[in-house]
Amino acid sequence: MEGKRILRLEQRRADLRFPLPERFAERVANARIDRLARQAKFLSAHLSTGEVLIMHLGMTGRFTISGQRTGDFHHETGGLTAHDHVIFHMEGGETVTYNDPRRFGFMELWPAANFEAYPRLMTMGPEPLSNGFSAAYLDTALSGKAAPIKAALLDQSVIAGLGNIYVCEALYRSGISPKRLSRSVPGMRASRLAPAINAVIAEAIAAGGSSISDFAGTDGNLGYFQHRFDVYDREGEPCKRCGAVVKRIVQSGRSTFYCSGCQK
DNA sequence: GCTTGGACCTGATTGC
DNA sequence: TGCAATCAGGTCCAAG
């Protein structure tokens, strides 16, 4: 999409999680996408019109590219399905279709001149693979926090871009109990946790993501990282490290999988 | 100010 | 087989 114009936007419903932008199709028609970027779980398309199209996939959103060309990022599709909500008809003949059964995703238009003030990104913590993230950063961010470390790592203002799966996996790798209070993590534990977070994210990206039911890449292919989970969705199975049984608990309304034998 | 739990919505799975 | 209950990868907001 980068460098190309959106010839036409096809909007098939008024809202996703939030209402789609007013006069959405009109505002993006013929706009060139000057830059396509990602911050945390947010995608941003900087348009030649002076606006930024900000997009989030929620839990079940996906983009699929199809069209005239063939290659790694293209595949042929049949007709539109019930959950194809927004279709970008691009210069060059390709279409980029946003599909989202649960509609937890969203799209917003925001002035580029004021992009830094976009509220949903203003409070974001550092990216796991950025220079701003380190064990020393975790020491500062977690000290004094009363919430369980599992909840703190899901908090995007502490660290950006970690979801439920990768928090469970990173805590397992670093041998830290998800129930441990955040303020007891700084020090030795944080020095194990920071590299574990880096490794899980880097490996998941290399594996093409995690496909449990909905996720697929833009070529329609599934991710492979789900085959490498150590604890996530392995309730009742033996821990790969110590043999104890993997448990499932609910924290802040989300499933947590962990090994009670070797996560302390 | 921090933390938790409910809400948003649909589809797949599980249990009766 | 059919129905109801439960659960799911994220984020926001009200209430405690």
What do you see in this structure?
Strands 1-6-7-5 form a four-stranded antiparallel beta sheet. A four-stranded antiparallel beta sheet has the order 2-3-4-8, with no helix packed on it. It has a two-stranded antiparallel sheet with strand order 9-10. Helices cover 20% and strands 23% of the residues. It folds into two domains: 117 residues, N-terminal domain of MutM-like DNA repair proteins, CATH 3.20.190; 125 residues, Helicase, Ruva Protein, domain 3. By secondary structure, the protein is α+β, with helices and mostly antiparallel strands. The structure holds a DNA duplex (16 and 16 nucleotides).
Give a summary of the structure in a few sentences:
20% of the residues lie in helices and 23% in strands. It has 264 residues and is of the alpha+beta class.
How many beta-strand segments?
Answer: 10
Mean residue pLDDT: 92
CATH architecture of the largest domain: Orthogonal Bundle
Give the N-to-C terminal Cα separation.
46 Å
Proportion of residues in extended strands: 15-25%
Largest sheet, strands/sense/barrel: 4 strands, antiparallel
SSE series:
EHEEEEEEEHHHHHEE
What's the level 1 CATH class of the largest domain? Mainly Alpha
Q: What is the strand arrangement across the widest sheet? A: 1-6-7-5
Level of helix content? 10-25%
Q: Which structural class fits the helix and strand makeup?
A: alpha+beta
Tally of contiguous helical segments:
6
Q: How do the strands and helices of this protein lay out in sequence?
A:
Blueprint: E1 6-11, H1 24-28, E2 33-39, E3 42-47, E4 51-56, E5 62-66, E6 84-90, E7 95-99, E8 106-111, H2 119-122, H3 135-142, H4 149-154, H5 164-173, H6 188-206, E9 246-251, E10 254-259
Antiparallel strand pairs: 1-6, 2-3, 3-4, 4-8, 5-7, 6-7, 9-10
Helix pairs in contact: 3-6, 5-6
The chain binds a DNA duplex (16 and 16 nucleotides) through α5.
